[in-house]
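User: Please run a holo structure prediction.
Assistant: Happy to. Please share the sequence and the ligand.
User: Here you go; the ligand is guanosine-5'-triphosphate.
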Amino acid sequence: MTRKDNNHSHQHVQLFRLRRLQWGVGSHLCTTTIVFALYLLGLLPVAPAIIFACSSVLLNVLFYLMIRSGFNEHFNDPSLTGLQIVCALLPAVFVMYFITNAQARTVFLLIATGTMVFGMFSLRRRAIRNVGWTILASYLALLLALQVGAPERIDWRVEVVVMFAYASVIYLVSYLGGKLVNMRSRLKAQNKQLERMASLDPLTDLPNRRALMQTFQRATHQADRRDKDHESLSIGLLDIDNFKQINDSFGHDIGDAVLKKLSAKLRRTLRQEDFIGRFGGEEFLVLLPETALEAAEATGQRLCEATRQAVIEELPVSYSLSVSIGVTEYRPGEKIEATIKRADRALYEAKAGGRNRVIAANHLLPESGQVV
Ligand SMILES: Nc1nc2c(ncn2[C@@H]2O[C@H](COP(=O)(O)OP(=O)(O)OP(=O)(O)O)[C@@H](O)[C@H]2O)c(=O)[nH]1
């Protein structure tokens, strides 16, 4: 993955976190509505209701700024889910203190459970459980505060049952959350493997034709954008010479081993930023970004030399392995199939000219009345 791809996916993750913050805002709005409903019902004085609404707004603005500025990256959980849930507890516990009806108080435990369930999608099992225990501990602290400030508002027998029920809910949610986390990481690993399988050639471990075409297409977009600075992009179509003969004389397994070992050797011969993949059979496509035709021809020569020098134990020492290569430069705006076709024609010339060589498709040389 290039640095640009990394940046792109990082921005994507941050955007996703911001979008998830909207859920938090939604839940705050919902709780604020309940708080004001309790006020209208005469179960809560107006001052705590207003303080609750203000602190909700403040918290959400704070979290928004933290994600927007990238400060969230300094946290163990950059999505800040656990922190958001725990911070949302403070105004809730504060407002609960002033609610005169015990039954109305438990509504907040219900909302807190909802937020915990929400945490199941991004928190690990332990973190979910910790959030749950924090909620329960806050509730207990509230009851103790009430015991001191307004003991007539609590019935400890009922509260013990409530807390026991809530502890069971915490256990259940964290258990299910753990299962969900496992499922998610298994799915992620399987997706990665599927992606790998869909883009790699199983024999040579090089990118397959599909991946090659995608990368080539992307490279042409970049070359088209940079056209003003004359950034070139060249390709080479490489074919092992007389490969059928290797199969026929030494067997298909030896043919496979040659493909495998030569692929690795070719990959090592190229620069880090170059790209090589198996185009099909014994044919390979090489993508050479920021490379003009002359330099591409020189790279082709290096690949030819590397093939001649390749030590493949499965072949007799006397066997001289060689490749033929057709290189060409991508012309801004053209279809990749047209570039490949030109490289293929150059490759055909290389084969016809005696193999074990590089032929560059010269832009100006007409062939059968066509410009190649
Ligand atoms: N062992 C092995 N052989 C393969 C594989 N894919 C294609 N081939 C063989 O590669 C050979 C290609 O033969 P041809 O197209 O005649 O080309 P060539 O013998 O290399 O001759 P030139 O290209 O003209 O030099 C065929 O015999 C295919 O069966 C593979 O994965 N493993």
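The first strand starts at residue 233 and ends at 240.
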